[in-house]
Amino acid sequence: MSYKKTLSLLVVLVFAVACSTNPFTGKKTLALVPNSQILPMAFQQYDQFLKEHKVINNTPDARMIKNVGQKIARASERYLTANGYAGYLKNYRWEYNLVQDDAVNAWCMPGGKIVFYTGILPVTQNEAGVAAVMGHEVAHALANHGQQRMSAAQLQQLGAVAGNLALAKDPENQQLFNQYYGVGTQVGVMLPFSRSNETEADKIGLTLMAIAGYDPMVAADLWQRMKQQGGGAPPEFLSTHPSSDTRIRNIKSWAASAKAEARKYGVTSFQK
Ligand SMILES: [Zn+2]
């Protein structure tokens, strides 16, 4: 068998054993780097990040972030359990922190590790706006979008190193992790998610915020405000989350079904 054939066969084998299912879409996704490896890295990075930044505690804003976070986490658990994925979040260690930083940004690392920067609060404006961003970021984590990007990068490396099928060693994994889950100050700028990942996160995020009791239409207004933040130097969040008319249109068209989904969980009023 030729060397190339051997390589592609092995790649197929790796694919076959290294997929996980996205509980929201039922689609198989690439998972060369298992969560058992990713989550400990995430937890370590998160703790490190908190050590190096000013975490705000016990202010009304900090309490709001935690409160919304708990509601989105609870909504995620209810949704996953109702859809046959009980236990999907068993390795999650939810945490929600507000950090003093003017950057217009927020993120959720694998395992439910969330950071909001104070700089995004003027754009989110209120609790429902925070829920829109939180729902979206948590959706990326739940759908393992970072894991897919990291796996895709490993696959590329696999090709590049021509036949060295050993998965990247720990320090390399660490570097890939930083790049693909990015926490800004680490290896550099976080690489953007693909457009399809963004669309998926928008859709899942709307459902989560609706189940948590927030009006999903708020997300459309949020992205509109986000869009107006553009200009000379677009904020960090916008560099990975371009806000377009298509995005806003999609959100408006999905809002009703997100509410309908939430009603299945007994949610009847939606905070704006
Ligand atoms: Zn996103």
From TrEMBL:
Cofactor: how bound: Binds 1 zinc ion per subunit.
Cofactor(s) for this protein? Zn(2+)
Query: Can you provide one Gene Ontology molecular function annotated for this UniProt record?
Result: metal ion binding
| GO-annotated biological processes | proteolysis involved in protein catabolic process
- Mind telling me which PROSITE patterns this protein's record contains? PROKAR_LIPOPROTEIN
Which parts of the sequence belong to the Peptidase M48 domain?
90-254
InterPro entries per the UniProt record, alphabetical: Mito/Outer_Membr_Metalloprot, Peptidase_M48
Gene Ontology terms: cellular component: membrane
Give the superkingdom in one word. Answer: Bacteria
Q: Which UniProt keywords apply?
A: Hydrolase, Metal-binding, Metalloprotease, Protease, Signal, Zinc
Its signal peptide is 1-20
Q: Which PANTHER family match?
A: METALLOENDOPEPTIDASE OMA1, METALLOENDOPEPTIDASE OMA1, MITOCHONDRIAL
In the record, the note on similarity to other proteins reads:
Belongs to the peptidase M48 family.
Q: What is this protein called in UniProt?
A: Peptidase M48
What organism is recorded for this protein?
Marixanthomonas spongiae
Name the lineage: Bacteria, Pseudomonadati, Bacteroidota, Flavobacteriia, Flavobacteriales
